[in-house]
Amino acid sequence: MGLLSEGSPLTWDxxxxxxxxxxxxxxxxxxxxxxxxxxxQGDVLxxxxxxxxxxVRFDDKQRAVQVSLRAQExxxxxxxxxxxxxxxxxxxxxxxxxxxxxxxxxGKPYGxxxxxxxxxxxxxxxxxxxxxxxxxxxxxxxxxxxxPRLGCPGFTFPFAMPTPDDESCAARSNFFPDEAIFPGHPRxxxxxxNIRQRRGEKVxxxxxxxxxxxxxxxxxxxxxxxxxxxxxxxxxxxxxxxCLQLTFQACNISEARTLYDQLTxxxxxxxxxxxxxPAYRGFLTDVDCRWNVISxxxxxxxxxxxxxxxxxxxxxxxxxxxxxxxDSYLSPAGEKYNDVPLVxxxxxxxxxxxxxxxxxxxxxxxxxxIRDSVSLFSEKVHQNDREDTDxxxxxxxxxxxxxxxxxxxxxxxxxWRVEFRPCEAQLTDFENAAIVCFIVLLTRVILSYQLDFLIxxxxxxxxxxxxxxxxxxxxxxFWFKKNITAIPPGEAQRTDGETQATKxxxxxNGTTEEAAGAGTDEYExxxxxxxxxxxxTFPGLVPLINSYLGSMDVDAxxxxxxxxxxxxxxxxxxxxLMTTATWIRQQVVxxxxxxxxxxxxxxxxxxxxxxxxDIQDGVLPCPELLGNNINSKTTDNIPAAIExxxxxxx
Length: 650
Prior knowledge:
The protein has helices at 12-17, 19-37, 71-84, 120-132, 186-199, 236-239, 253-263, 266-273, 291-297, 346-354, 359-368, 390-396, 429-449, 457-466, 472-475, 512-517, 528-533, 541-550, 556-574, 580-589, 602-616, 623-626, 640-645; strands at residues 46-59, 64-68, 91-95, 101-106, 139-142, 156-157, 205-208, 229-232, 244-249, 279-280, 283-284, 323-324, 400-401, 403-406, 417-420, 478-481, 523-526. It is of the alpha+beta class. The protein has one domain: Creatine Kinase, Chain A, domain 2 (2-Layer Sandwich).
């Protein structure tokens, strides 16, 4: 979830008083870090995935299912291996927001061998089995994006009651008790309390209910202005969801900026393709994805910043939550597509420019730093700006965007990195591995073929909203570049972030008209099937990956595994296979307890997750979701002979 500083959390009033201190020193820390590391070269491809899991408890006698609030206890046992042998463990485990959640990553990052794609799924299986070995028979670790009845009475075990009138509570939610927030680190409750207090009221998440034949309005618990919406009022409804994320190390800062930009238009495509969360607070909703739920769950903007009142006490009108899609590209090739006016702190922008930060990167950082810190520890207030980066990371790590540009940590062998953040968690390790390998392979193709996916930021924003609609993977069309194999001459070679437009020192993005001037014939509306599988002269992303693989030395087992993964991606895109969200909907509405009223009963949820468990365990085939014959050749380790003789790297 980001930076986990140790120490004593400050109150919101104390944190607010230090907001400018954190911003100014965070900028100085970034300037110093950049000066040391801007010319760093030669880092090799390393990458890894992060899968978030929910601990689920089944009560077979009552046909009930709950989230189990034992993450802290389980994490303590999981972390014993790392403490004993930090270099030798196959997995690493970290806390997440929910007291029922854990996050697992590979023990070490994967590298540049194509054979590494054949160990991803096996490592995910190992992680799942490692957790399962610590659970009693009635508990299961599941990689589900959202627990369908989160916020319903009795959804936790042990039972916990929301206490909205208790001023000492962090969330003060009508539905989500503080006991469901991870208790093992103060960051989580501190964020919850400070976001609520900074906003001046509880967060307000409202999703349109799925309109079935007998759906009642107003929906139970809805707010008067949104009677046909499912209302949620706590950070836990968003940050209590699970996702699948990837981080890549680039060879230098220029490559990192290129990947950041080129993957940005892929974010809504992958969000729709991995859609897995149609159910919230015991209702089917009319959306398929978690993104806007999390965005609203941490929206700390005041009414002035949201544009509901004229600016008087606050500095900026801010157009998005701090959890949302990115607002500007970082590479010179992307500058002309920065068509959304960028709100930034001009004083900090000028300081960054004085610190020898180029325009595109300076405006990106100055935009992130319009936010206040929402979690600060007393031990971290005063730092050495030449060596520490906690103030920078304090703001950076609480801008939860679709992509994250990550500088190297100080005094570390780790290089410039890019994090890809939109994907929803899938039921099985096979699916999660397929998504991971597809995206990593796509980065190799982007760099090898110099592909160009860039479209105006405004079009990416439009795609992000459309990607979350019910059935979007089949029913929506998305703006995408027509000719992805042609980067304008010269732009691919620029690395300093400066172009003619930036010489004027304008700390703003361009206008919509300027981006449109590049020619709307550059991009068009396409289906995800067309983007993934191709149409006419547009080659399709999977065929391009296969073309790339055809030029590489790939061992037979790895080739077999990759092809299984690519087929899953292709069939999800074409509609031959369902998304997880569509499968969940189908299970809910076909259940004998379902009354065509959009409500997910306890028994319905129990049977849904029981079936999901059997599918993830390989006990129950699910050809409509996974296809047939999905046995990949995944293995725990790269065979020594392959590692020795494979010289071609991806």
